[in-house]
Amino acid sequence: MAKTLTHIGSRGEARMVDVSAKAATERVATAEGRVMMSAKTLRLVLQGDAKKGDVLGAARLAGIMAAKRTHELIPLCHPLALTKVEVDIAPDRRLPGLIVRATCKLKGQTGVEMEALTAVSVACLTIYDMVKAVERAMRIEGIHLVEKRGGKSGTYRAKGA
């Protein structure tokens, strides 16, 4: 079943989707990504010894701020009154690296997937920026939507999530 692209008009022009007729429902989205680094760099981050300061705290704050400004970064995104943005960062010594997960929530007429993905992306970039002097070979990987709930299309959950 082919889906139509809602941000493209009949003549191929970009347009912002009119969501005014949609019911306001609770919408939640969770996204995730990873910052891969050496075990030595991970220890430095977890011990709080980075020269630029609290890497994890700064990344959480950056992710929250980014989610709130997604409409300024991604063309045609609606400005949203988010009611919750949570950014969790957990070490994974097996990678080694950090797992970044963001959840966004609101009661509104459009979803919050882009806000969750933006929060993860900017949190990962902040981690990279704060410790790049120690390790430039870090990699940001696997940014994806884990789950979304609410709205007309219902629930989506990534395979293996």
- Shape label: elongated
Mean pLDDT over the full residue set:
93
What portion of residues belong to β-strands? 25-35%
Alpha-beta classification: alpha+beta
Question: If strands are numbered along the chain, what order do they take across the biggest sheet?
Answer: 2-3-1-4-5
Helix amount: 25-40%
Weakly predicted, low-confidence segments: none
Extended strand count: 5
List the main descriptive attributes of the protein structure presented here.
161 residues; 4 helices
Structure in a nutshell:
It contains four helices and five strands, in the order E-H-H-H-E-E-H-E-E. The chain is an alpha+beta fold and 161 residues long.
Describe this structure in words.
There is one protein chain. The chain has 161 residues and is of the alpha+beta class. The protein is built from 4 helices and 5 strands, in the order βαααββαββ. It has a 5-stranded antiparallel beta sheet. A hairpin with a 6-residue loop joins strand 4 and strand 5. The longest helix is centred in the last third of the chain and has 19 residues, at 113-131. It is elongated and about 50 Å long. The protein starts with 24 loop residues before the first strand and ends with a strand.
Q: Topology, pairings included?
A:
Elements: E1 25-36, H1 39-47, H2 55-68, H3 70-73, E2 84-92, E3 97-108, H4 113-131, E4 139-149, E5 156-157
Antiparallel strand pairs: 1-3, 1-4, 2-3, 4-5
Helix pairs in contact: 2-4
